[in-house]
Amino acid sequence: MAITVSLVALFGLVLFFLLRSRTLSPGAAFAAAGFGFFLASTGAAEPINQFTAALVHAIPNL
């Protein structure tokens, strides 16, 4: 749970700066957020969470 919240905050911060620098249009940001929201409600959510957790656990071993 703590990893998920921190990743949401990180991606939100990146999205904010992309919007602020006008690298990303508001429409594209809305589409990306919508895609993430709907992806989380599919069967792909669990493998993505497992992959992210494995990646976070592997980083200290590099």
The profile of the biggest β sheet is: none
According to DSSP, the number of beta strands is 0
Which structural class fits the helix and strand makeup? mainly alpha
Whole-number tally of structural domains: 1
Spans of at least 5 consecutive residues with low confidence: none
Number of helices: 3
Provide a descriptive summary of the structure in words.
The chain has three helices and no strands. The protein is an all-alpha fold and 62 residues long. The model has no long low-confidence stretch (mean pLDDT 83).
Question: Secondary-structure blueprint of this entry?
Answer:
Blueprint: H1 2-20, H2 26-40, H3 45-58
